[in-house]
Fold each of these.
Amino acid sequence: MRAFTYTRAADTSAALGAAIQNPEAKFIGGGTNLVDLMREEVERPNEVIDINRLPLSQIEELPDGGLRLGALARNSHTANHLLVRQRYPVLTQAILSAASPQLRNLATNAGNLLQRTRCYYFYDITAPCNKRQPGSGCAAIGGFNRIHAILGTSEQCIATHPSDMAVALAALDATVQVQSANGQHSIPIEAFHRLPGDTPEQDTNLGHDELITAIDLPATPFATSSLYLKVRDRPSFAFALVSVAAVLKVADSQIKNVRLALGGVAHKPWRAHAAEEILTGAQPTAEIFRRAAEAELQAAIGYEHNAFKIELAKRTIVRALTTLTERHLA
Amino acid sequence: MKTKEVGRPLDRVDGCLKVTGQARYTAEIPVGQVAYGVLVRSTIAKGRIVAYDTKAAEQAPGVLAVITHENAPKRHPTKEFDPSDKEPSASPTTLLVLNTDEVSWHGQPVAVVVAETLDQAEHAAALVRVSYAEAEPARLSLVAEKPRAFVPEKVLNEKPEVKQGNAEEALAAAPFKIDYTYTTPPYSHNAIEAHNTLAYWEGEDQLIVYDSTQYIFGVRKMLSEMFALSEENVRVVSAFVGGAFGSKGRAWPHVGLTAMAAKVVGRPVKVDLPRKDMFYMVGPRTPSEQRVALGADAEGRLQAVIHTGTTASSTSNTFAEHFSFVTRHLYASANILIQQKLVRLDMVPNTFMRAPGEGIGTFALESAMDELAYALRLDPIELRLRNEPGKDPTMHVPFSSRHLKECFAQGAEKFGWNQRNPEPRSQREGPWLIGQGVASAFYPANKRSAEVKVHISIDDTVVLQSATHEMGTGTATVQAQNAADQLGLPVGKVRFEYGDSLLPKANGSFGSTTTITVGGAVELACEDLKRQLLRLAVKHPSSPLHEASYDDLEARDNGLFYKDHPTQGETYAAILAREGKDSLEAQASFPAFLKEKLEEMAYSFHSFGAQFCEVRVHEDTGEVLVSRWVGVYDCGTILNEKTARSQFLGSVTMGIGMALWEETKWDLRDGRIPNSSLSEYHVPVAVGLPRIEVHALSIPDPHTPLGAHGAGEIAVTGAAAAIANAVYHATGKRIRNLPITPDKLL
């Protein structure tokens, strides 16, 4: 680990000020990912700005019936919050399917969005990686790529975003509240993370001098009928091979509302708009589920070891929708 | 001997120390002035080091030394571990890293950085730049190297080939047959305690090494060869080991490098391998490709048994993992063909992993038996019972003890096997397909050598001493129980000192041999002590034992008493007091008598078991969950119900990990291990395990000390096959390449 300066920020403006002053500095929350990256010398900040004392840990109801999740609320606290459990079960399930209780107790909501890919080669500083070192090449494309992306990849990078929580947030149309020196603004979750394109080193559209303060969940009454289905190699403490966050409202044998997002398949949580379009207004049948899944995965590209994810993603979509539909009928 | 303590589920004697953090592991030994070493890994798999740039590292804060092959003090090559040596060295390889510019595997240590603190050493190690020349591509694939596979001289101490009758002809003629290839991947060791070493020198030629090892005297031998010291000048200490599983039977490169670094900086040096180094600097279980072909008559009697295949060793070691041993001893057949081949890869030297040989061999053989049972439409247990051999099928001697039938009978009843519909894909619960599978477990019951000293004080305190190891298996507990019964004292009176080369010599604790070996030595030492005590007593007309002969007596109530006179006898304290002695001691070696050595050849010593499991396979996603486990094991007398049970539970757990989750991935371009971390190398987790029900027959083996066998490995064997067989039963899909990951079942 490279030696670094530790700064504790007393408030948001002090934190932002410190970041503006030092372009190499990094904010630290739970540190569950950043510290690992620093130990491996993947991240080499010369300063960490500890934001844990900032008053951003609240979870509160918004006037419209939505919820505001504080940036520093811990993942475990968020998952187990009564209103989250009642109104957004998909989010609770997604968070609890991730990592371990110890990690969730430390990891923050904002940190969860900002965690970096678990691509093996990104973590190994002796391997080429365009995300870690732009222009050095991608070791994953011709290497071992079982855990890599099948959608939205580029010739520069086939890494996936590792978060489960963010997949649920994508299905819930969350917005990320951001503070900068110029004031507060919000970024829709879909515009928050990026596809790799020619700049895989940039995971998100958050600037260095910007700080996430909260994640807002809009009021979504039908999200009580939601599900997070995660397929992985090991039943705990493993990243998703494929995951599906699904929100579904069926009435009068018709799909009134549907939201689908996929994890483990792309550089960002993958909102399945093509599938949603086919499903909306249709009768909830196995055939339509499969057709929607096929449409969503039409553009998917498999590599040597991850081609199975294409079929797995389709099946997982169908299974998630089937399960929710059965619940409606029951 | 009357057993009061042996067999009892006594809590482990070191349990309290461990759960309160007072048990000191190697990395926690307090030594003043300790400096920290970090090893730099090569980033190519084969080639030469052309140049180092160590300037930045040398100038980094706290750095005491940057040692490369260019400035490393000369060490001497060491002999590779050879099981046919009487006292083998623990060296995994003949290659001496940092004595050469040659790179033989990706991750081979190419420099050692020593600094005042661990963080400083880690940071400086990342600043070392090494340039390499790569002349020819590395050989990294077992499959690609198969054309160059050769039959090694031996497989452990056995012949690589066995031919009885004509198996290929018999196979061709058999009315029922199967013939398939099974593969197992490389697996990496991941005990909770990573390997670590702390070394310092006293004067020029006294080396003291604390090492997390399961083979103290092998480490001592290697270091004495490496530094040209007499063995007495090297002391190796290993009090508590946080899991070994075979990986600590070898002294990996860090051990010698730590001692060397301590010499260079003139201070104690500690090297505690980071998790990544566990993948790169500690040998894995070899990958294997095995063919099993079985031919049977209509009644299911085996007419032909063929088990051949290939494993890998490195370019600098020779260990051919003995996957074929199980087939030499498990089932009867007139026609048996066994052949092992080996390829050499540019990899870290491979090594033992819990149930080496049998762990992967039983996957192939016991999967094949299941396939044959389906071909015959015969119950898989019945198929096995019909092929029970009267005596060992290739050694042609009786088994010392074999109760496989009883294991299946008990297991079938407890599991409810007979309710099973044998039809594949016949049970489901929602999207979950359910299946049940069974397999035999098999592991040798070998012995090694050990010396034990027993010391009794006038207050009846007994101290046992032997340089054996406690790596969590319960050795200290069960041998205290053993000595308590041998001497007829409460177990609380006995303390066992182990883990130090200053103590009487013991062999490595691997191969499930420690219980019998150390147990036998404890028995002999205690007998010697009792005979000495009796000799003291018979001299005196006043002693109630004046007329006694040893065979008339038994040890109980803290003394020697007549077997047929419950009250007539004398306590040890009384015997010692009369002589004016405070204490007495005795020492013995095992195996001691010609009888044991002859028995070794007159019988086939093995343990057996029956593994039953139920799995649930998700029909859409291919996820596999093991939902039920029943294991029944035949490994002689159980010395401690609780520690043995823990061994079985841990073994089944490792078997499940081997079947479903674990796999070391090698990037075939350069030997890199992409998943060299605990988040991507999937060891078992509690939520993935069912309630594991284990039972031991506890039938004594009449030909071993205490009637015991080791219990540490038997329950790994057959586990992966039982799971693969259950997956077939659930889905109708046979998986012949481990691990059984979801993609293989889509």
Amino acid sequence: MTDIAPLDPLVALAGGLLIGLAAALLLVFSGRIAGISGMVARAVGIADTGIPRAQALAFVAGLPLGAVLVSTWVRTPDIGVTTSIPLLIVAGLLVGFGTRMGNGCTSGHGVCGVSRLSPRSIAATASFMLVGFLVVGTVRVMVGG
Amino acid sequence: MRQIVIALLTGLVFGAGLALSDMVNPARVLAFLDIFGAWDPALAFVMIGAIIPSSIAYWFTRRMQRPVFDTQFFIPENQTIDRQLLIGGAIFGAGWGLAGYCPGPAIAGMALGDWQPFVLVAAMLAGMWMQRQFTDFNQRRIMAA
């Protein structure tokens, strides 16, 4: 694990507020849950129920646009990420398979589901958080960080 | 059309939030999951920030007959915590802990100049597709029995 500079909690909170605002607007205007794994599956045609495909595509296209706007005008992130292609592939396969099997990810379960106190989403969030802690902890022991 | 605009706008605000809060940085996410090391609380602040507007919106929409641009709300009603939910969450958590990417930051990260999100997203789509094949195969087996 490489150490990174701490992020101002107020900046983290402000970013979170934007994420929650996006979820709030989508719910109030279109009645939909801002679940990104579901949106992605719908956008590429892997899922064939849920939000209309054009909306899923628009939402998914908006994500990189918003990120570029902020990184250009507000704060350029100093991104630290593995360069191991096998690790990225294994991680991606697990993220894709798991989010579809569990019907959601950090956004749909973690933000939207927890916000409406859905027992399913709280259980799913506990499950992926716990395993996330365990995996990072195990990597730490194996790599000897 | 109005809903496609809302989807694009909410995707954009969501992506902006991910970039502002540094969630597009896998090192930041892994530092949160690293509870046995130099724990970084940023992701917790992001979640709190996101849940505030999202839960207010959910509370508010329960008093609305329908969303502004649609005839009904599309909120999951399933309350069952089953093995599929927990195992899916766990598989996702393992992938999340390995590379530090969940679906939103991976998609948003594709516009920030790194190559890693492209590899991860390609593998994620493959994982989603495999899960779909697996589900369809099980469905056919149940139908045949």
